[in-house]
Amino acid sequence: METKFDFNDSSNDDLKKNASGLFRSINILLKRVFSFQSEVDKNMVVNSIKSDISMRGTTAWILVCSILIASVGLNADSTPVVIGAMLISPLMGPILGLGYSISTNDLQTFKSSVTNFLVMVVISVITAFIFFSVFPLREESSELLARTKPDIRDVLIAFFGGLALIIAKTKKENLSSAIFGVAIATALMPPLCTAGFGLAIQNIDYALGAMYLFSINSIYIIIATYSVLKFLRFPLVNYTNATNRKKINRFISFTSLLIMIPAIITFFSVMNESKFNSQGKDFISKELKGLSNYNYLKSVALYNYNQGDSEIVINNYGQKTISDDFIDVLNNKKMDYSALKDVKLIINQGSNNSNTFIKELRLRDSIELANKSNEVNKLNLEIEALKNLSKEKLIFEKISNEANLIYPDLKEFEIYEKLGTNFNSTSKDLVVRVKWDTLLNTLEKNKLNISLKRWLEFQFDNRSFILEN
Question: What is the pTM of this model?
Answer without folding.
Answer: 0.57
